[in-house]
Amino acid sequence: MTRRFVVGGNWKMNGNFESINELTSSLLQYPIPPETEVIVSPPSIYLDYVVKKLATSKISVSAQNCYKHAKGAYTGEISPQMLKDVNVDWVILGHSERRNELQETNELINDKIVVALEAGLKVILCVGEKLEERKAGKMKDIVFKQLSTCVGKIPSWENLVIAYEPVWAIGTGNPATPEEAQEAHKLIRDWLVENVSPEIAATQIIIYGGSVNAANCKDLAAHKDIDGFLVGGASLKPTEFFEIISARQ
Fold first, then answer.
1. Distance (Å, rounded) from C-alpha 4 to C-alpha 24?
2. Helix, strand, coil % (nearest 5) of the chain?
3. In the predicted model, what is the mean pLDDT of residues 161-169?
4. How far apart are CA 65 and CA 125, in angstroms?
5. CB atoms < 10 A from the CB of 18, how many?
6. CB count in 10 Å sphere of residue 221
């Protein structure tokens, strides 16, 4: 079964009106390849602006986070319903920078996923291990625990994309080799066969994140279980980002 190629650009805490206007204007000049979905994720304060800038394109917009409630006394938080209200389609949840810097737990992340999906958002769920965990042979234990919290609670897997992002590769310039990434993606797909269903495993989109760039994207994309990328710094460079988007062409 052919799975669509998904490329997300996580802008993290970068940008202002001037730079985002230049970036979105550049992105609008590039044709999106067939069977490819492109998503960009600006800081929350610019979501509405980017949605409107990209309204005539095939590029979707994602938030970088949301909370587990629709409304209430949760200072500083944004609900899935608020994101839908400004025509945002996606949200990134479980990113390692939130797991490690803000101590978000698997349980909290799962609660967010469920509420986001029920609100009609699509979700990019990030999983991945730290360098010391990989060296200790605990990669599978860490990633499978991150995934296992979701089993039996996800209302619909079709609107969930899994992003394998080894923490040791994010922003370090030391990406996983294509073989290491493929091995991890295959392990995740096999876990889905055993713990969810063979049907879900066959259709589940699993993308890779961690120092993806124009130089390594084609080698990564050539592997059968790598269905796209979640891109950090390179997504702020439109020419390079388009090369990554076109990695399967």
1. 23
2. 45, 15, 40
3. 94
4. 11
5. 8
6. 21
CB atoms within 10 A of CB 55: 10
User: Pick from 140, 249, 160: which is nearest to 204 by CA?
Assistant: 160
* AA letter at 231: V
Minimum mean pLDDT range among 29-38, 148-157, 197-206: 148-157
CA distances, 185 to each of 91, 139, 143, 201, 245 (Å): 21, 12, 11, 11, 19
Nearest to 163 by CA among 195, 124, 116: 124
* Helix (H), strand (E) at residue 9: strand 5-10
Non-local CB neighbours of 150 within 8 Å, separated by 6+ positions: 110, 113, 125
Cα dihedral: 140, 104, 11, 216 (round 10)? -10
Catalytic residues: 95, 165
**CA dist 179 to 75, 102, 216, Å?**
43, 31, 12
pTM for the full model? 0.97
The one-character DSSP state at 246 is T
Look up tokens 């509420």; give the residue.
115
3-state secondary structure 174-221: CCCCHHHHHHHHHHHHHHHHHHCCHHHHHHCCEEEECCCCCCCHHHHH
Average pLDDT score over the chain = 96
At a CB cut-off of 8 Å and minimum separation 6, what does 173 contact?
211
pLDDT in tens, 57-100: 999 999 999 999 999 999 999 999 999 999 999 999 999 999 99
